[in-house]
Write a structure and sequence with these properties.
By secondary structure, this protein is of the alpha+beta class. It folds into 2 domains: about 40 residues, Orthogonal Bundle (GTP Cyclohydrolase I, Chain A, domain 1), CATH 1.10.286; about 130 residues, GTP Cyclohydrolase I, domain 2. Helices cover about 40% and strands about 25% of the residues. The chain is built from 7 helices and 6 strands; from the N terminus they run H-H-E-E-E-E-H-H-E-H-E-H-H. It starts with 5 loop residues before the first helix and ends in a 6-residue tail after the last helix.
Length: about 180
């Protein structure tokens, strides 16, 4: 994705509001273009990621469960709320624990399909860590499905698995089973 241009976003949002018949001089709308543009800048600006790893003999699943994160739908530019579950089986090195959440934040920093996001995150974790296996499960509720069209609050679930999670059914089962322990 290219560089964000907040001024252009503000101008476009002002034009959209005018197209909706809104009075941009009204106290309710005078700062709306700036607020909306700032919201998109906040949603679409990734934090720097220093991918810290440590040598380790740990060879069992490491899993971040239920990380709450927001994405932006590329079709309607509406937010969608996700609960992300991201895990891997290390191969001689472990990742700094906070980096799992930061990796999830990094890849949501553009309008993106949930399916694409799930694949990118799991593939990146697998490649960056040289893990034996990596997997990502995303459970999301989409603003575009809630407020228009079908108007459902149902969950959309996507998954992406690499390495041992594809090749070994018991490893995959452990990953998926651990998502439900504790009422998740």
């Amino acid at each position: 994705m290219g560089q964000l241009n907040q001024k252009k976003m503000e101008a476009a949002i002002a034009m959209l509001l005018e197209g909706m018949g809104c009075d941009l001089k009204s106290e309710h709308f005078v700062d709306t273009p700036k607020r909306v543009a700032r919201m998109y800048v906040e949603l679409l600006t990734p934090q720097p990621l220093n991918f810290t790893t440590f040598e380790s003999r740990h060879a069992s699943l490491v899993l971040l469960r239920n990380h709450r994160i927001f994405g932006v739908c590329p079709h309607h530019l509406l937010p969608f709320e996700m609960r992300a579950h991201l895990g891997y089986i290390p191969n001689r090195k472990v990742l700094g624990l906070s980096k799992l959440a930061r990796l999830l934040e990094l890849h949501r920093a553009k309008p993106i399909l949930q399916e694409e996001y799930t694949d990118i995150v799991s593939h990146d974790l697998f490649e960056r860590t040289d893990a034996k296996g990596a997997g990502c499960v995303i459970v999301a509720q989409h603003g575009c499905m809630q407020c228009r069209g079908v108007r459902t609050t149902g969950d959309i679930v996507t998954s992406s698995m690499h390495g041992v999670f594809l090749l070994n059914p018991s490893a995959r089962e452990e990953f998926l089973r651990l998502l439900t322990i504790g009422g998740v």
